[in-house]
What does this fold into?
Amino acid sequence: MSAATPALVPLRVAAGFVVGVALLAVAPWILDFTPYSHNLVTLAFLLISGAVAWNWMGGFLGQVSFGHAALFGMGGFVSARLLLSGPVPAPLAWLVGGLVAGVFSLGAHPALRLRGPYFSIATIGLGESVRLIFTYWEDFTGGSSGLSLPIDPDMKHQLYWWGLGLAAIVVGMSWLMRHSTFGLQLLAIKADVDAAGDVGVSATFYQDLVFVLSGAVVGVSGGLYASYFSFIEPNDMFGFDRSIAFVLMTVIGGVGTILGPVLGAIVFVLLRQYLLASYPDLYLGLYGTLLIFIILFEPLGLAGLLGRLARLARSWRAPAAEGGTP
Amino acid sequence: MTAPLLSVRALSKSFGGLRALDAVDLELAAGEILGVIGPNGAGKTTLFSLIAGSLQPTSGQVHFEGRPVTGRAAHRLVRGGIVRTHQIVRPFANLTVLENVTVAALHGNRRADVPARYRAPRVLDFVGLADRAGQFPGLLTLAGRKRLELARALATIPRVLLLDEVIAGVNPTEAVALAALVRRIRDELGTSIIMIEHVMPAVMSLSDRVLVLDHGRKIAQGTPAEVVRDPGVIEAYLGTSTEATAP
Amino acid sequence: MRSRSTPTPCRSALLATLLLSLVAAAPRAAGAAAPTKVSLGATLPLTGAEARIGGFFKEGYELAVEEANQKGGLTVGGKKLPVTLSILDDTTTQATAVSLADRLVNSDGVDFLLGTYSSHLVEAQSTIGEQNRIPYVNGGGGATKIYKRGFKYLFGTIAPVELLGTTLMSWIDVQQKAGKLPRPAKIALLWENTAHGKDFRKGVSDFAAKSGGAYQISVDESFPLDGKDFSALLGKVKAANVDLFLADAHLPDYITMHRQYVAAGLCHKVVSYGARGSEKGAVDALGQENVNYVVSGVWWSAELGKKPGLAKAFVELFTSKHQGRKPEWFQALAYESARALFTAIEQAGSLDREAVRAKLAALKIPSMLPGGTLEFPASMGQQAQNPFVLQQNLPDRTSPIIFPPDAATGTGIAVNPRCPK
Amino acid sequence: MERFIDLSLSAIMLAGLYATMAYGLGLIYGVLRVVNLAHGGVIMAGAYLGWVLFERWGIDPYLALPLVIVASFGLGILMYRLLVRHLPRGPAGGPASLLLLFGTWLVLRNVAYLLFTGNDQSIRTSYSTASVPFLGTYVSVNRLAVLGVAVILPILLQLLLKKTYTGRAIRAVAQNADSCTLVGVDVERIYALTFGIGTALAGVAGLLSATIFSFNPGFGSGELLKSFVVVVLGGLGSILGVGLAAFILAVVEVFAILVLPSYLTSAVGFVMLVLVLVLRPGGLFGHRVLG
It folds into this structure.
């Protein structure tokens, strides 16, 4: 799977991907989803898209953003405004929301030359100022009382497939990024931004590009989210907690991996839905402990853990043949 | 001699009150190896950073193939054909040796006729790292990492290669091998080279001409033999420095 | 970081699908057999920013359910059915409030929903009731805009916060007409930037606008929830030299702001923090001498229980269960919400959601809320319009009701005696 | 004129508070190059400790200062030994340290929640609302005391850094950890001590904040953000810069009310944070390490 081999998508990967997506697309009928499960999986798709897109910045480029809620909220409010303004088809509104969020993310361009903690702190500052300003901006966001969209149960039902489509596209993009020379350059920037420049990689260009892509996807998922909940409010959409959620999902799942953010988002939904409702006193500590353990013992998160288990299982099956290779 | 490939005019750089480089001129002809020597803090690495675009000069010009390139960003200069290596090697630790080179091969000289993914293994072969292609750089010896640094620079198909102490720090056997590699780069690939080096025997034997810097100024320039006889150089550098004779 | 050590794509896809089906593996709601119980569901903020109040609402709901079950349950179509209530924690988060309500309806199969607390959670969560055509009765979402969306299944026992501003101004107006306050009176209006604060502001400023110049709003500023330093804002109030200080704040902001207010040597003829003022927590944190004469407006007060009636019965029921602790408006509104739903169910004589919805829409029952009657007028988006009661803290540690006159248990003191002449 | 005096006094008092909040964050960054995201959690812990001491044993918050310092110093040492020590150093460790300490903060919050529930608490002393007349206006006694601590703390810190062996070692490690190892300084020990001192400062900030604000387990996030702004303005790692930066931030925030709606004045700090990071990454006063 080296980048030096032709970058065509291997048949096995493509087949697995298509089968997986197709299975999920027909799952509501096969598994006879209750409306609740249906909605929950839809939500998982939206979170997956957001987490995967965050991971392009945080994992592939190594720029940990604590301000992605700004882009999420932007996408959500632009598409909500469009949907409220007249008979705009919802997908168009989401797309426009995403595009605006993508362009909006360029506002962070000056911060992109900062690296490491400096960048992270700058994104906190950006995110919080955006939140305050947009909460104050009544005409656009409805101020602190937010915006309500008309209730449309059919639309909410269909969001399952829209969400699946978005998640599939985004995961596919992740795979392509990872296994192309494009991703190789992102990794080079992550490793050493100056050295990357010295071999001709334009860090500025790639960081801008990835940030715009990430912002656009997060924006689209924000738009879908607005349609899903029919009510959005700036303090929630732009909130610091939401930015943190992107970080938590990705890091717990496995930062810099393809599968990690997907796992992380699913675990996030599962935890919130089943554990937290019954053991509310423990959820912060649970996330905190997970985070600590992952940073100290398994930097690749759940994805890394699964990889480890898989290798362990393999070496168990063939103990004699290939013991000892890492 | 025809028009120089690279010419530097009155290049200066100040950091606050400190004048790190003071009105330095130099010219590099096609296919030439120019050695740059001088005591620590003489401004050698600053000179490289200015030419390669890592730093912005305070004043002065750089011309490459007759066109002004002063202050252009590093990644754009690489595409034009000027590339540098670092004294302290900086491989991308999270990429394999082959991938390290592939990244570099993606950019660099537009006149390349071979696609990046085919060029990278050839370059590795050229520097003698072909058998290490799948490893991560952390497993290489220092000499190996220096070769990787060279390979990465070469993968961009440079016209001008700025080598910052590629030989210093490795054991004598490897030093000889690396010096031979530098010569092969010029002889077989036709790349013009400016090299900063503390290892005197290597500089003296490889360089066509040598430029001596001290306190940010050029104090001498000429063939190795001329420079060694220059009284100013002897006083400023050879006479006082112990490093001059160290391997 | 070694990035190539993830499992192979095929296995990954399989795994993701498996995990997602785990998400989807929620039990299906039971089918429509003959009902053996009335099952209700609610989420409340039991953790997070509103945890304290979430707990109060839980007390109110539980009291109503216990009371109903002690009587053998609800009489539905001639049969006594016991009531069950499952309460989940929405962690004061909108998204959680929405998906847990979804779970209650579509997975746990509850018959009806009771609401959560605070306007933004109710506004988000009530969409679930509407989508699933299931009655949703709440006592925690007071913002008028929640009820302006034309929802048919949403009922609020909590009167609009706007009315709080109006009631406060009505009392002030009485004092002004009695010559105790200057005319025109200058107002400093400070409101937290939430739906709550915006409604309060609207109530006050609409009243002032219609007063024909009797009131002039000199300072009109919002502040963020959990604001920390109000000194600059209070400096502005001071410079404006106003007569009336009308603010709307949550408890922590009230404590922080009022400490700074007192320390800055401020004093106004009328001081109010909207619904805040009489709670024990505030008195403990600020000291009795500093909260004296603060006027607060609430939806309900245990003071109402001093006169015989429904409120008295409720206060007695509550205090006997909670070792003498008195209920606040939170428990009362929660209790009234549950009771309104119970009444509608019994009137409908079935658990049919449409029938119960219709009964709720037509409901008109005697209530312990100020005004004495609870109904959900369609013209107001099915939000109850009961008046507020104003209380004033007195140096003897009581907070009698001072307005409206029919509910009053004491007389209001219009010019704050704390202020130097 | 009176308005100007009012605003200036507000700004000075606020600056005192901001400075106490930011010293600890600045010190830890200056020496360990680690952004202590758990800073807000330690502030919260300090507030609760002060509250417990005051409510249970009636110890005045200012008399409780030494106890809180010792306890949060211990907490810091523990956090360093158990967690921070295991982080990779250098640029790669940056994001990891942020996340690790953020996780620690979440755990601290949860512990506080389990111990004290989510209810808002506050400390009310006899002087909580007392004030003294000054230049025709009133100044809160408690805020004056906070200002006093804010002025004394950096002086003590400078004395510690300049006059004691440990202090000199801390400064040396801040300059260059590698050469310290060579000359026999126990760098690990210095790191642990610094982290402890930094968290002790955060604990003090929490205790002082608790005398002004009401708090709950979520307390500290606003304080953390303000500390970021101050530390970045002052140049990450410069103690005196922190004091100056706190003053600048407070002045800008307080005087912003003359031109901005009150609600937006808190956004001013964040905008400044971003501008300074982008335009002058070394802080307003240039980059100095424990100057």
User: Anything to note?
Assistant: Residues 224 and 334 of chain C are 27 Å apart (CA to CA). Chain C has a mean pLDDT of 89.
